[in-house]
Amino acid sequence: MITSLTVKQFALIEQVHLELNAGMTVFTGETGAGKSMLVDALGAVFGTRASVDWVRHGAEKAEVTAFWQGGDKRIDALLEANDIDVEDELILRRIVTRDGRSRAYLNGVPVAVKVLQQLGKICLDLHGQHEHQSLMQSSVQQLVLDARLPAADLQGVKMVFETWKQLKNQLQSLHTKRGESEQQANWMREELAKLESLDLEEGLAEILQLEVDTGRHHAQIQQAAAQALMLLDESEPSVRDLIARAGQAIAAVEDYHEGLRNSRILIDQMDALLGEITPELSHVMDQSFDDQSLRQAEDRLIRLHEGMRRHACDEAGLLGLMKDWQERLSALDTASWDVARLTQALDKAAEVYRQHARDLNAARKACGDELTGQLRPFLDSLALTGMQIRFDVSMAEDEASWGESGWDSVRLQVMSNPGEPWRDLASVASGGELSRLVLALKGCGALSDMPHIAVFDEVDTGIGGETAWCVGQLLAAMGRDRQVLVISHLPQVASCADFQVVISKAEKEGRTVTGLTSVQAQLRQNEIARMLGGAGEGTMEHAGDMLKRGQVAS
After folding, report:
1. Rounded mean pLDDT, 506-518
2. Does the bond joining 279 to the residue before it have cis omega, within 30 degrees of 0?
3. Does 161 map to a domain?
4. Residues 196 and 270 both lie in one domain
C-alpha cells in the first residue's frame, strides 16, 4: 500500500504531504477544491502520460513522491529486471518540467516511465479514468471467470496446448529442412562426392606436397643417394675406411691420454651412425616413382587446394562440412517418414486440445451465467436496476486463436435498457457505473486478484439514500483486503470510511492553493455536517448518527 504521498507544485497544489493507511480513506471537499488533482497525482507517480497542465503556474516543475510498502513477487521481479535492489520500502518519484519533459525514479534510480506503468498495473486500479480501468480489458474479464473455475481445468488445457504447439514446431522445422531445393541437395551431393574422392585427413596437403616434390625430383634424389653411398662405402678409400683407420691409430696409445680415449669413443659412435645411414640410402635407391603416380598426387593436391579455397577452410573444416552435409542429406532422405509420423501425432494432439477447449468454453459459459445471477441483487442495491449484464463467451476454432488458456474470447457486455442491443462494457459504461459494477463484483467475491490499491473517483455519481449506504459499505468491505481511496460528495459514503481527508481551497498571496487535512472526531463530524448541507445543531447530530452507522456497518 501507499504509506505517504508528497505532491509539490502540481496544478493548484503548492505542496502537500499526506500519510495514508490501510483500509478505506475518503477524500471530501467543496466542488472545485481540487479532488481530481489527487487522482492525477497518483496517476503521475504510476506512469500516466505527462501533461504540462500538471505544472503549477509560475513553477519550473511538478513533483510527486510516493512511498510503497508491501511484499509482491511481481514487484521484486520488476526491480531485479531493472537492476534495482529489492527492499521492504519502495520510493516512486515522478518529475514533470514546465516544457513537458518527464523523469521517473524508483528507489532513487532513474528508470523509464514504462517501468512505473508496469508497477501501476500491479499496484493501482483507478476507477473513473478509462485508460486505467483493468475491468475494461477482455483479458481481465476472462480472469474474472477463470478465477472461479477448478485449477485442474485450466491446467489441463495449458498442458495439451503445449504438447500440440511443440509437435507443430517440430513439424514446421522438418518442413523447413525438406524445403531445401533439389538444386541445393544436388549441390551438396556433388561437393560431398568431390571431397570424398580426396580421401581426406588432417594434414593431407602437407603429405601430398611431399609426394609431389619427391616425384618431381626423383632423378636428383637417386643421384644424390648413389653418390653419398659410394663415398661412404664403395670408394677407395671410403669414408667409413678412413674413420676406421683413424680409430685404429688412436687405439694403440689411447690408454696414455684421456683425450685419445674420448676421441676413440666418438669415432666408434660415428661409425655406428654411418652404418645406419647406408640402409637408408639403399632404400632410397631401391624406390621407383613413375609419371602416373606423380600426376595422381599433383591432381589430388590441386583438387584439395581448390576445395579449401572454395570453402575457405583447411582439411579439418572440410571434414566438418562433409559431416554436416551427410547429416542433412540423411535427414532429407528420411524426412518423408518423419513428416507422416509427426503429422499423425499433431492431428491427435489437436483433437485432444479441441475437446479440452470445448469443455473449458462450456465451463466458462456456465460460470458466467452463475455469476450474472449472483450479481443481480448487488446491482439492484447499487441503483443499477436497469442494467443487464452478461458474459459473452465465444470460441474461435481456427488455430490462430488457440492458446494455453483455450480459444475463447470473453467480453463483459451491458444492455442499458430493455430492447437495446448488447454492447461491450467499455463502450457504454460511465465511470460511476463501472465503479459500482466493480463493487458488485467484489461483493460477490469475483475480484480476488486485483491490484493492491483501488481509487474510486466517480462511484457516487447519480445515487443517494440507501444506495449510497450500500456503496459505502461495499467500499469499506473492499478496504479489508486492499487499500481503497475514494473521492466522494456523499456523506453516507464518507461515513463508512476508516479515514477521512478534507481537500480545501484557499487564497495565498493572491494565488489559489489546494490543501489536504486529515480529520478525526469533531472535525470529521463537522465535515460530514457540511456535506449534509449545513452546520446547525440538528445537522451536527445527524452527522454524528451517520458516522456511528457507517463505522458499525464497516
Report:
1. 83
2. no
3. no
4. yes
- 259-298 pLDDT, tens digit per residue, is 888 888 888 888 888 878 888 888 777 777 777 888 888 8
What is the structure's pLDDT at 279?
85
Residue 109 clears pLDDT 70, i.e. is over it = yes
Burial class (CB in 10 A: 0-12, 13-18, 19+), 7: buried
Closest CA to 147 of 358, 356, 353, 370: 370
Q: Which residues contact 333 (CB under 8 A, 6 or more apart)?
A: none
Instruction: Give yes or no: residues 99 and 198 share one domain.
Output: no
Domain extent for 530: 2-135+449-553
Number of domains in the chain: 2
State which of 331, 366, 397 marks the end of a domain: 331
What DSSP state is assigned to residue 32? Answer: T
CB atoms within 10 A of CB 245: 12
Q: Domain for residue 542, yes or no? A: yes
Which grid cell is 25? Answer: 480513506
Nearest to 48 by CA among 116, 137, 98, 110: 116
H, E, C per residue of 434-502:
HHHHHHHHHHCCCCCCCCCEEEECCCCCCCCHHHHHHHHHHHHHHCCCCEEEEECCCHHHHHCCCEEEE
- Rounded CA-CA distance 491/489 in Å is 7
- Same domain for 187 and 321, yes or no, is yes
User: pLDDT for 11-64, tens place per residue?
Assistant: 888 899 999 999 999 999 887 767 778 888 998 999 888 888 899 988 999 999
Helix (H) or strand (E) holding 106, with range, is strand 102-106
Give the confidence band of 429 by pLDDT, cuts at 50, 70, 90: low
The dihedrals phi and psi of 103, each to the nearest 5 degrees, come to -130, 145
Same domain? For 319 and 186 the reply is: yes
Please, which residues have CB within 8 angstroms of residue 142's CB and are 6 or more apart in sequence? 364, 405, 408, 410
Together in a domain, 321 and 201? yes
> Do both 276 and 213 map to the same domain?
yes
Pair 423, 414: CB distance under 8 Å: yes
**Banded pLDDT at 181 (limits 50, 70, 90):** low
Nearest in space to 456 (alpha carbons), one of 183, 128, 76, 91: 128
Q: How far apart are CA 199 and CA 180, in angstroms?
A: 27
Q: 10 Å Cβ neighbour count for 135? A: 20
Q: How does pLDDT run across 433-461, given as a tens digit for each residue?
A: 777 887 888 777 776 667 788 888 767 77
Instruction: Give the residue from 484, 492, 504, 429 showing the smallest Cα distance to 460.
Output: 492
Residues 109 and 43 in one domain: yes
Q: Rounded distance, CA 53 to CA 541, Å?
A: 42
Q: CB 429: neighbour CB atoms within 10 A?
A: 24
In-domain check, residue 381: no
β-strands 102-106, 61-69: how paired?
A: unpaired
In a domain, 403, yes or no: no
Q: Say if residue 127 is in the same domain as residue 223.
A: no
